[in-house]
Batch of 3 targets.
Target 1
Amino acid sequence: MFGDLMGMMGKLKETQEKVKATKERLNHVSLEEKSSDDLLKVTITANRKIKSIQIDDSLLADKEQLEDYLILTLNKAIERATEVNEAELAAVAKEGMPNIPGMDAFLK
Amino acid sequence: MFGDLMGMMGKLKETQEKVKATKERLNHVSLEEKSSDDLLKVTITANRKIKSIQIDDSLLADKEQLEDYLILTLNKAIERATEVNEAELAAVAKEGMPNIPGMDAFLK
């Protein structure tokens, strides 16, 4: 029994390292999200850090429209980044999880 | 042994419900982030959904400056939302985790 526990702890430690390495790698995974008419472009990392926002001059004429464009495009970008982030981290964490039915519920 | 496993699975199911309820509640937790001069205001939920972006008219005169303001303020808003999100979900998940030393590493 004690040996099992030690084995499990070792595996968790190893997985913890992998989770950390994955988080570091996700800093260098970039996603681009554009408004349907390409007037607004957002680049974001899979760790949800915005790298660039490119606004077409024409959008500066109508502030409320620009604000709506930003909210829509940014939310899509954050959502996509979160999907990649969670999928990658769940895959790594799953490897290290003890095999208890229902445990993967924590990785959704 | 079997009884333990059933007990653990029951606890995990219960915690899964709590995680779900917490995620729902976080939709209604809003954070406001402002640029230091208050010319840009962003409201975001603790599930990282942007609810509003308010741009001062003066920022529309210089597009590059506006883009920089947006990147800085939005990244701070997303970061703060992620801190609240992860703290709340980790607290709930921890309750349901089997007591294996090192397990909490998955909740960082």
Target 2
Amino acid sequence: MMMKVEDVVLDVNMEELVAKILLNKQPEEYFDTIKKLTIFQQVQLIESLPAEIRLNIWHCIDPLNWWSLIGYLQAETSKNLIRSLPVEEHSKLQKVAIAAEVLLLADKLPKSLIDAIMLDQDEKSSLEFQQALTYSDDQVGRFAHRNILRVRKGISIASVIDRLKRKDFISAVFMVDSERNLLGYIPIAALFNNDENDIVDDVARPVQSVEHDSRVSVIATTRQFEEGMDYLPVVENGKVTAAISISVILHEVQASLTNNTISEAPVQDEDLFGPVNVAMRGRGLWLCINLATAFLASWVIGFFEGAIQQVVALAILMPVVASMGGIAGSQTLAVTVRGLALKRITTANIKLLYRKEMKIALLNGVLIGAIIAMVVAYWFDSVQLGLIILCAIVVNSFAAAASGTYIPFVLEKMNVDPAVASAVVLTTVTDVIGFTIFLGLGTIIFL
Amino acid sequence: MMMKVEDVVLDVNMEELVAKILLNKQPEEYFDTIKKLTIFQQVQLIESLPAEIRLNIWHCIDPLNWWSLIGYLQAETSKNLIRSLPVEEHSKLQKVAIAAEVLLLADKLPKSLIDAIMLDQDEKSSLEFQQALTYSDDQVGRFAHRNILRVRKGISIASVIDRLKRKDFISAVFMVDSERNLLGYIPIAALFNNDENDIVDDVARPVQSVEHDSRVSVIATTRQFEEGMDYLPVVENGKVTAAISISVILHEVQASLTNNTISEAPVQDEDLFGPVNVAMRGRGLWLCINLATAFLASWVIGFFEGAIQQVVALAILMPVVASMGGIAGSQTLAVTVRGLALKRITTANIKLLYRKEMKIALLNGVLIGAIIAMVVAYWFDSVQLGLIILCAIVVNSFAAAASGTYIPFVLEKMNVDPAVASAVVLTTVTDVIGFTIFLGLGTIIFL
């Protein structure tokens, strides 16, 4: 539902409003303020408040905006909200449903609600609805609009304008050949700035199409967009059949942006003030995976018990060895994961990257290793210990560079998301290699 | 420079092309293929190739596209490329300069080149150019266009269309009152779908404006955009004076997305195949900061030398204590940093988040701590050791939750970017507290 200009008040201090509502917990008092917020401010408000107050906010909001609101809420938050709605609200929700908006969030809705909404649609939209639902919520087909205008090469701008006027709302205009193959896109604003007798070819611009089954998240990271381009053409077997809005793509990028991309602690789309047990389960899994790798490191250390007992300094310095390997590896990882996401790194040039990373590892390893060696030699009054840690740092830097380059590359080849899985594998490698070299050399030299 | 539809070939296998060029290093052979790539494919190609081949690619590209190309290249990569251009190329570049495109990359250009380009502009664009340059490349003012159309409330759609036709290219149309205060924006495509005798009010939509000095990166993370909205109004003292394209914002989000957001190893915008010494310096700094915190952890461990010598198991288990604290803390951190970036967390509700995080810490700490305790008690045949590590894990979980919540919050209040600085502070806290409790209890019980 579109809000009219006069329905909205823009200058509201959101922080103050949240504080006030938390203080006296009677959102009804602010009914008018809340109702007149923009949809995005209402989203912000709901996501800033604990789950038990959210339903009260919901009731202050114009039912005609409920669907857009659900659409813009973070996935987890909207799931929690819908789950908390009383059953009779479901039928109210159903009455105000707009197919296009429901599509954006089909994965968050109970199946019964979707079926009921589909029954309410006329035949044409119901068909489009069902078609869209065959795609996942990371596929272009889910969000593609069919309300596009296809015009042929060589026709006049005047006739394009004429056709635009005779149609219902059109999102995008594309130029095609007689086979409906894509030739270019026509920025609607440009139609006004050329002579109406000119042909559309003069305003057509080259554009790369996407397929119905293309992944939105991939487009979002890999494609760049020219200024003024607001829809991408969607094709089936080369023929233009629909368009997808840049705002859908922007929304996707924003969502990924605020998720932690490369991390040992990925936290996917968690609801800030949602139920504790859901958050706990998601995080517990990662804690356990990391626990396993930490125990692996402990197990490695266990082999060198004798050396540690003789030279406690070895135990004291373990964090330095682990930290340097882990950080250097994460740096390489960050570069590789980005390069892979942007499709800059492929089989064609991965070796070049590997060589560059090894050079950096050598330089930083020797330089920082030398600083560490000096500090250690002075602290524990032992040149031997300094040389041992220098050696461990340099070797571990190489291990870090190699794993940082190849772990995400191999994971991607195996169809595992390198951003999620790389960090934990990498830390395991650098811990195990770092401790083995450091404590191993310690055993050889001091025992 | 805009490319025409017929200049471009879209179906090129980029990976193959990169492999071929790397194999025989004669890009001239592929001159025609490279020239006919879209600008974004040319960008991909340059970023996928080592620095020494890039200049050859550059020479294959139509000079009219040079500026857009520079604009779309990653910051570091384009700096390196421009630095490597022979001096005589600078004057060639200058000849094909388009003010609007130069603006996007003023920070990457030598001052002399910018001055020369400004002299070439007519008075009006030169003035706009200078004005835009007073803003940083993260401010709206740098990218704002003045070619907007302001229409008054109540006028007919026909007269809007008429005014659009009489103007040079217009990016966006806004509805204003008699004082030029913003009332709403008019989607250009909607002008075709209403009766020409209707008033613009019928198609106007509410929109929040931005200021010339607003930060693009903040808009990029915090604002959501409706479908079909392609420009945001830019205001000065409430009066609409310009517009900024959503594509600029999308570009900003994409750039941040591919940077590692929350990390102990931030790698800013590094050129994949740029000079090793530049990459090394950037990373070396972070390695040194982390080195300092690792030594701090070592120093803490040093206090418990006696206990470690008696019970080597304490040293063996240190990675487990450190890992659990670090990971749990990073999870909280991910949630907090995202909430802060989206302006969901403020002084009004930070305590609520803190309480939720403490609950999760208690539950996960006790549960996973118990698993660890059982493994440890069995492994080292010591119930005491199991209880010690249980205690350390639980206390450290609380420390992790508290720091994960408040470190980024405090950093933001101090105007330090929490995404960059939080992780290293957090790990220090969890390492120090974890080791102190674990080894401290070990000392009390075993010595």
Target 3
Amino acid sequence: MSSTTGTRGESVTPANPAYDTVADPTDVTALLERGRALSAPVLRAAVDRLAPPMDTVAAYHFGWIDAQGRPAEGDGGKAVRPALALLSAEAAGAPAEAGIPGAVAVELVHNFSLLHDDLMDGDEQRRHRDTVWKVHGPAQAILVGDALFALANEVLLELGTVEAGRAARRLTTASRKLIDGQAQDISYEHRERVTVEECLEMEGNKTGALLACAVSIGAVLGGADDRTADTLEAYGYHLGLAFQAVDDLLGIWGDPESTGKQTWSDLRQRKKSLPVVAALAAGGPASERLGELLADDAKSSDFDSFSEEEFAARAALIEEAGGREWTAQEARRQHAVAIEALHGVDMPERVRAQLTELADFVVVRKR
Amino acid sequence: MSSTTGTRGESVTPANPAYDTVADPTDVTALLERGRALSAPVLRAAVDRLAPPMDTVAAYHFGWIDAQGRPAEGDGGKAVRPALALLSAEAAGAPAEAGIPGAVAVELVHNFSLLHDDLMDGDEQRRHRDTVWKVHGPAQAILVGDALFALANEVLLELGTVEAGRAARRLTTASRKLIDGQAQDISYEHRERVTVEECLEMEGNKTGALLACAVSIGAVLGGADDRTADTLEAYGYHLGLAFQAVDDLLGIWGDPESTGKQTWSDLRQRKKSLPVVAALAAGGPASERLGELLADDAKSSDFDSFSEEEFAARAALIEEAGGREWTAQEARRQHAVAIEALHGVDMPERVRAQLTELADFVVVRKR
């Protein structure tokens, strides 16, 4: 259906054009906007169910209000996951709308993990704003995270269908992997060496699993069989690894204006992200010098007061050792595997083209 | 089936007699032991699925190992919830075993909430041992709590049946109430006055909802309809309120040797528990004096170094104002409502008698 004419020829120009099928497969902005427009009201309605003060804390987290409770025009994130969940329903031949509860449930789980991870990691900023634990205290960050996690299951299970039960099971599996990934992430920060394989496994858990769920959950709700859902998950998992490789690049070399994070953000947090572990594994003088520096940093009591120049020196060594280029290649490699997986499922060609465009978007983004 | 002879006459004396139907309805100890014996191996197997170090942290929380990782003979709690979940299945005419995944899921949710609540409340002791956040740090308490919550849904949803989906939905509803109750509990600690009604609502959320779920989830897994499950929930909800009223009495006047908590535990934490709010609402000289003292305490910077005598004086005023007696009566009143609800469901008379005995046990316990 076009954006102005219905199947029977009458004008159906909707109040919000995003509610239509996105006909142009190259228009990623429209796809992301549709995901946001269709899922946002349902997400808000779900969050509104929370008892005070959790509803307010959650609204702050999502950027709907500011710290003083005034309405805000928040940066709700890139909305890749909701866009994927709607395309997922369409991949199974169902209308995009069938994927909405899945889109909302995945966003709730994603935001549950952000609330808890920011507290565990001591991150003070997210999306250009103070994190929830900074503004509302640790207890509210824990509590509202828990509430969003429960709400995610509620949104699915209250549908009361067999498909919803299958969708909830996939979401639970993905949530467990997300938690495994955070456990690995925390433990790696205290270790001197992490292998590239360990890092990829952690990133697959932390990012791949939920993206995989986003791109299968709509199909499951739309009646797809397990084989179709599994193949869509393979696309999502590798897309997630590509996404995370790009995130790791942005976590070191990203523009703080775009990312909303501090300069050298991941280095400040001693994250053993892909560029770091790849540089350490590469061998050679720059790799060895980096290894010595990071080993000293781990014992240093001044680490928290390091200057910009000290982090810049570490970033330069990572680049010199080849960690930056390896990670960029890894993003492209995972992107290619994701695209390849798309050919294992029968789906409308338009949807396949859109999933391909979304994958392209993920690897070239700047935030 | 008796404990020594099978239906076809051969000896079937099991290795663990707890695996049998508990024939004597007055034997609460055997009922609790059966709940523990049948659910513990499944609970352990579920927790074993957690990735390191979460499996170890969880094993410490459950009391299976000590802080050094050595096997321990832990105090796993009273195991009222597993006993209820198994009886719940029997109430629906199913074998007790049908309730096991429900018993395990409810225990996982209960322990998720303990891990997070202990951290939020700053509680340093639970079941005579240091709490997880004290031993393993706040991040592990958050993470392992999250993992147990996810695992609870996994244990149910992996059954893949329509009944399991319905059970998971009830568990999710109960979990949301549990979280609402913790939010209320936290907010009440910062308020000067809490009404008896607000306190009862909070306790219904924090304790009633999960006990209600325990006593309906086995029936749902055993194929009971919603009306039967709802009526069992009514029993469980009021049993939960009776349970909590007794807990509130033990939280002030309990013997630390039995409870594993500090003397005047709830007073030290400024908990607005039932005896406190009832005493404040009672009026009269003791009530007024108590109100003045607690208002001063809220502003006092020495509160953390108060002596035993200072807490004892507050406890005496609560008793003098009638808060202790009112709470004891409330436990008996909720107990009676719970028993009354049991008559709204058709169930084997033995099971009804056992649910009655369990309710009696809950209101006379010392820990």
